[in-house]
Design brief:
281 residues, alpha/beta, Beta-Lactamase, Transcription Regulator spoIIAA, 2 domains, 6-stranded antiparallel beta sheet, 5-stranded mixed beta sheet, elongated
């Protein structure tokens, strides 16, 4: 699932949700409250609160098709509730219902600041619970608060990655480490800073490390094609290292990588050896 995760660890979201969970639990008289994040194939619980009975642990994952979250997100009301999951038509046959042995449930869609689906905010209880429209609106209001916190976490993560990490090794040789999601704004800065650095420092070789790259929605970043082409035109040798296995397995990405005028090696040390440099202790 590495290809869809942001660099953000959502520390602020976790901290704020912990404070809200007790309020939610008291307001709705439920044992458990939790936040999930949607991945490419599964939903993961990233923060949770269990008052008396330990029901949902953090890190708990369920395949997307078998989750209550899918039903919530696909609902026109962006909410789902029932007084008994075991007898509710949409949930009684789900494997997770048998595993958790809970009854009362209410969940709402959790979106980020821009309206994109992040995951869900849910509550559940081992006893039957009747949820009113007022309860549903209360949960949606809580989700609205958390959407601003998600935006804060993502903004912090983007700021940390805003700089272009060019590491000079020796005269003419440098390493560019591409980290996180490369959006359009970052692509322009990476392109400008890298080509400017190469021209200013008389670079003859560039190692581009991809071990920390993240793809959102499986989109191949055009920056790689444009950057390699620009460096090639300047007469600079380009080598790529750290290609993650999940990246190479994607046919659409593999086709792009094959077209690039560059050499691929396993790691930075191998790239340096190919150029003629040796790492010494």
């Amino acid at each position: 699932m590495q290809e869809t995760k942001r660099i953000s660890t959502h520390d602020s979201l976790k901290a704020v949700s912990y404070k809200l969970f007790e309020v939610i639990s008291d307001e709705l008289d439920v044992n458990t409250a939790y936040v999930t994040q949607r991945g490419p194939k599964a939903m993961e619980v990233i923060s949770s609160f269990n008052k008396d009975h330990y029901i949902i642990p953090e890190g708990y994952e369920v395949d997307y098709d078998g989750t209550y979250c899918r039903l919530i997100i696909q609902s026109d009301e962006e909410a789902m509730h029932t007084n008994n999951l075991g007898s509710f038509n949409l949930t009684k046959e789900l494997e997770v219902t048998e595993q958790l042995e809970v009854k009362g449930f209410l969940g709402v869609t959790l979106r980020d600041f821009y309206g994109n689906v992040f995951g869900t905010l849910c509550v559940m209880d081992k006893e039957e619970r009747e949820f009113t429209e007022k309860n549903i609106q209360f949960m949606k209001n809580m989700a609205g608060v958390l959407s601003y916190i998600i935006h804060l976490d993502n903004t912090i993560a983007d700021l940390e990655l805003l700089s272009v990490p060019i590491i000079p090794i020796k005269k003419g040789l440098a390493i560019l480490s591409l980290q996180g999601n490369i959006n359009e704004e970052r692509s322009q800065k990476i392109m400008e800073d890298t080509l400017s650095y190469a021209a200013k420092n008389g670079s003859h070789s560039f190692i581009i490390d991809l071990s920390q790259i993240v793809l959102l929605e499986n989109r191949f970043p055009d920056i790689l094609k444009n950057l390699v082409l620009g460096l090639n035109i300047m007469g600079i040798k380009v080598m790529m290292t750290g290609l993650p296995p999940w990246l190479v397995k994607m046919p659409e990405v593999r086709d792009h990588l094959t077209d690039l005028q560059t050499e691929y090696v396993m790691d930075i040390e191998s790239a340096l050896n190919n150029i003629g440099y040796t790492l010494e202790k």
